[in-house]
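Quick start: read one record
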Amino acid sequence: MHLDLQPQDRTRDEEVERLLAIGATLVDDRRKPDGKGWAVLADPEGNEFCVERSAAELAG
């Protein structure tokens, strides 16, 4: 199973930084300079998941 997460109360980049601070690792950075894209992270056990842009970022 692979999860795609969409932050609700922060931006994608803020969520990525928060997750890295609590033990996740960055596997693949698909974020683009124009704000599009996603980040692939792994939890401490190696399970990968993606963090996508928030709904606010997509709307704005």
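The longest helix spans residues 12-21.
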